[in-house]
UniProtKB/TrEMBL annotation:
Protein name: Glycerate kinase
Residues annotated as signal peptide: none
Pfam families noted in UniProt: Gly_kinase
UniProt xrefs under SUPFAM superfamilies: Glycerate kinase I
GO molecular function: glycerate kinase activity
Taxonomy of the source species: Bacteria, Bacillati, Actinomycetota, Actinomycetes, Mycobacteriales
Length: 141
């Protein structure tokens, strides 16, 4: 049972739920269904999304990974704003992500980013918007 997808989630609660007849469902898929993500995606020219820590785990089962996977066949550019980013450009490109920007890097450190997270995020988002406004998505290619 421990090899089942989701069995180790939340400290093993997933395994307990599977043992009593529960089933695994992707949280990202549930969110996409209930927010009608596919309908909105059809009209999108660019997606900007976020994550606390953007790493390889994010690409497998988390919302950001699901967004990138859905956007890729439609050639919709995806930009990720995250507290920290630990993926290189090759991994980003493989996942169909145009750019991933770190709030901690923008702020100068994790400590500074956490001390004023809202303003640091707004500053980074403003920088992204300005760059996109000057050159469109090609500014990140």
């Amino acid at each position: 049972m421990s090899a089942e997808p989701g069995a180790g989630a939340a400290g093993g609660i997933g395994a307990g739920l599977l043992a009593v007849g529960g089933r695994y469902q992707s949280g990202a898929a549930i969110i996409a269904e209930h927010t009608h993500f596919a309908d909105d995606l059809a009209d999108a020219e660019l997606i900007v999304t976020g994550e606390g820590r953007f790493d390889v785990v994010t690409l497998h089962g988390k919302v950001v990974g699901a967004i990138a996977a859905a956007a890729r066949p439609l050639a919709i550019p995806v930009i990720v704003l995250a507290g920290q980013v630990s993926l290189d450009k090759s991994a980003l490109r493989s996942a169909g992500i145009m750019a991933a920007l770190s709030i901690a890097e923008y702020a100068g450190s994790v400590r500074l980013a956490l001390a004023d997270a809202a303003n640091q995020l707004m500053g980074l988002a403003s920088q992204v918007a300005a760059r996109l406004g000057n050159s469109g998505p090609s500014g990140y290619r």
